[in-house]
Amino acid sequence: MGLFAKITTASDPRTARIAGILLMLLAMLAFSFSDAAGKTVVATYSVGQLLLLRALAGLFVLSPLIWRQRKAFVRLERPGVQLARMVIAACEVAVFYLAAAYLPLADVITFYLASSLFVSVGAALFLGETIDRARGIAIVVGFVGVLIALQPSAQTMSWPALIAILASVLFAGLLLLTRFLRQTPDMVLASQQFAGTLLLGLVLAPSGWITPSATDLVWFAISGAVSAVGLLCVNRSLRLAPASVVVPYQYTMIIFAAAFGWLLFGDVPSRATVAGVAIIIAAGLYLGWRERRAPRPSGAVD
Q1: Burial of 282 (0-12, 13-18, 19+ CB in 10 A)
Q2: Neighbouring C-beta atoms of residue 201, cutoff 10 Å
Q3: What is the Cα–Cα distance from 131 to 121, expressed in whole angstroms?
Q4: How far apart are CA 223 and CA 50, in angstroms?
Q5: Is the pLDDT of residue 81 over 60?
Q6: Which of 111, 168, 229, 299 would suit a FRET pair with 160, their CA atoms being 20 to 30 Å apart?
Q7: Which helix (DSSP H) or strand (DSSP E) does residue 127 occupy?
Q8: CA-to-CA separations, 146 to 99, 121, 168, 173, 280, in angstroms, rounded
């Protein structure tokens, strides 16, 4: 990983920001490809089996960094919150792939885009943050975008769609808990997410286990390994550039997901989905812009 650090270390702020943006784009491409690889195998194998083998591959990729930073695992802040975050992270991945087994990948990612809206609401409810009128309107507009993409009716309100929304809520909870753990090293948080899915996979995988073929084992490995690389890219991106600069580029994930969905599964997003995505992205970008402009107390960490 020394080479990775060298090629992503910039000497001036402008170059650092460009490198951070490129790494965030690479991370979104990696996550989308990982999700597509997982969707490929979950059509045949159980979600528990995917969680187990995906986590093993991810931890294998992260193992050199985990060993190098092993001292960071000795004393952890707020162990109860750490455990809760690990459980939510495992459930979020499981619910995501359960929904992806029945819905187009772009549709599932669309609901994930709403996580920024859920985070804003959750921060007000649980973190004591205030929601002014402008933020409130943006949140309502964003949820309108979710409704447009979902097209709720007796025919479209299927349980996979509801599961996808649940996955988005769990992901928002994961982000909120991460705010409590700002002093915890990134590698500890990343490895905990894979460890949580590994444990959940160990519980669920024996039920309906199917011995995977060599080809499918490659897909399992790709899903975990590429996801781990994506996490590394996100961490490096946030170290090179401010979060307010690189985080908006996470919305490109829907473009990559739609492309992989079309190439691998023949899925074409509907006009309603595209319209809903546009509204959700606009609301999310506005919320990010408002947060960037909001005054911060001295000593606040970005």
Answers
A1: middle
A2: 24
A3: 8
A4: 9
A5: yes
A6: 229
A7: none
A8: 16, 15, 11, 18, 7
The encoded tokens of residue 169 equal 């809520």
Is pLDDT above 80 for 1? Answer: no
If DSSP codes are grouped into helix, strand and coil, which group holds residue 62?
Answer: helix
| Confidence tier at 17 by pLDDT (50, 70, 90) | confident
Q: With the C-alpha atoms ordered 219, 223, 228, 233, is the resulting torsion angle positive or negative?
A: positive
Cβ atoms 207, 101 nearer than 8 A: no
Pair 74, 83: CB distance under 8 Å: no
According to the model, what pLDDT value does residue 298 have? 39
Say whether pTM exceeds 0.90.
no
Q: What angle do CA 78, 84, 90 make, to 5 degrees?
A: 135
Q: What percent of the chain has pLDDT over 90?
A: 30
- Which residue has 């949140």 as its token pair? 139
| Contacts made by residues 94-98, CB under 8 angstroms, sequence distance 24+ | 94/47, 94/48, 94/51, 94/197, 94/200, 94/204, 95/163, 95/166, 95/167, 95/170, 96/35, 96/164, 96/167, 96/171, 97/38, 97/39, 97/42, 97/47, 97/50, 97/51, 98/42, 98/47, 98/160, 98/163
The string of pLDDT tens digits covering residues 82-105 is 999 999 999 999 999 999 988 888
Structure tokens belonging to residue 190: 């990343």
Nearest to 113 by CA among 300, 296, 299, 284: 284
